[in-house]
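URGENT: need a sanity check before tomorrow's submission.

F., can you look over the Paired amphipathic helix protein Sin3a-like record below? I want to be sure the sequence and structure line up before it goes out.
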Amino acid sequence: MFFEKVKKALRSSEAYDNFLRCLHIFNQEVISRAELVQLVIPFLGKFPELFTWFKNFLGYRESFHGESSHTESLPKERATEGIAMEIDYASCKRLGSSYRALPKSYQQPKCTGRTPLCREVLNDTWVSFPSWSEDSTFVSSKKTQYEEHIYRCEDERFELDVVLEANLSTIRALEAVQRKISRMSAEEQLRFKMDNTLGGSSEVIHRKAIQRIYGDKANDIIDGLKKNPAVSVPIVLKRLKMKEDEWRDAQRGFNKIWRDQNEKYYLKSLDHQGINFKQNDTKVLRSKTLLNEIEMLYDDRQERASEETATLLVTGPHLTQTYEDSQILEDAAALIIHHVKRQVGIQKEDKYKIKQIIHHFIPDLLFARRGELSDVEEEEEEEEEEEDMEMDSEGPKKHNGLPGSSPSKSKLLFSNTAAQKLRGTDEAYSLLFVNNYWYIFLRLHHILCTRLLRIYGQAEKQIEEDAREREWEREVLGFKREKNENPAIQLKMKEPLDVDVEDYYSVFLEMVRNLLDGNMEPIQYEDSLREMFTIHAYIAFTMDKLIQSIVRQLQHLVTDDVCARVTDLYLSESANKSSGGPLSTQTSRATAEGSYQRKAEQLMTDENCFKLMFVKSRGSVSLAVELLDTEEDNSDEPAEAERWSDYVGRYLNSDSASPELREHLSQTPVFLPR
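Structure tokens as predicted:
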């Protein structure tokens, strides 16, 4: 019957469970009878009949002197805490996300020390209702492992500070008592007793400080301090001071450990994207992922076209990307070639072809300046005679389906004079039909250029910020701060990276080379990047993996037979002006480009065929990618298209105008094309 009444009175299953836990630990003889009574006061204190019955059942008798009366008084002062715990704050009125209003039925505890001003200004309505990060379902808001290290250091530092301050407060209180005793006579010292505050203003702080030192004997020490202060105070005070010195020494040792940990994990704790980025980027850079992406776009368009029966949705690019800065192409090419040169598994001739693709073929497609091949040419000249002798003795050879691909002749493999002429044109385009290997390579190459550009842009921002800071120091403070005046150096903390802000980008490129060569550990590489580019460094964490993937695709481009024929087809069509030109003359090449497309589709019948269009406009180059449907049978169309293309060519060439005039009119036409 008693437990049913308690359950009805508490009106909360959680409070009732906590009440039963108190009884359980009493049955296990963990706490005494008096301690059990103190524990249940928050639950039964507001129900006098139940509380009285419970004490009578336990055989508990209240005493009005000694320690029992003292320990009994503490819970009485806090009896209202149990009521506060029963309030459902989630249903209370809200103020922002962290405060709740107490219900009007809540009975405020009495405070006898309040003045009229206190009643006017102090808050008795709103209480703090924190929401912990662990309670959030938003994963990114949770602390990382490095933040946990930082917070753990702060918790340990705070805990030690609390212990030291409590110990110091007790020392000061007992020193004041000792000075007071020293001014007393012998009879006054015998009569002098201390209360529960032990000469201070708190009954808890000094008691805990003594318990922390004496452990199980603390109650005896406290009794001695209260009954015979003249004898016990000097002894306890000496012990407290010894512990004070010991803990201060320990604190100095801990400070070094905490400082090292903070310096080690500080920049990592700010980086919330690095860990997830490295995990996800490994999947993003896979060939299968890049192919699945555009195949899904293709399937979505086909489904929409079949549902809406709209012809406009069937054509056009599935994917569009932008090359914003052509200067980045040189940095990307330098990193790729740096890694290619150190690959022992790639043949010398293949390396030279890769260099032509990177330094000549790609810049031509993107209307950029070609790279230099002088170092390779010098190598070829040294062995030219030996290669010629081998060619004469063995006859012309084929390499990957390309006749006579010796180093001396391979220099002409990727020559495209038509594309070079378009570099000076304001608006132009290049058309290229490729297979899977070429598509994956160009996607990875664009990702590399994009990330290099982001790092370069961040470096430029930091240069501007550093310039503004130095300008402010010169104008406001009247001096220029030197390197040795850095606050980190003056505080003997970890010295900053000995690199000027202006050199951040060049140092970053050198770090990538060292990482590719194995001369730099990945952890050291990431830490150096964080120190230079702070929270923006994560984008470059997988730069080595990206370059390695690009080099693998380049190997396919120079060794795969279909890739070689795709390249040859593009170069031959470029000579016929079927692979791009000025944007203003695009319509006049529609027939020839259609013929080029059909040839490419026939060449890549067993794999995907991609239509790539590089468009130069307003200072930037965009890449439009379209996955073509090669399953339709158009076997009779190529011959007809070729005849039509020849007819159009003969018709245009019959014009009596000079070639220079025809080229000028094609770039800026003043009439509609036929």
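My own read: The two ends are 103 Å apart (CA to CA). The chain is about 60% helix and 5% strand. If you see anything odd, call me.
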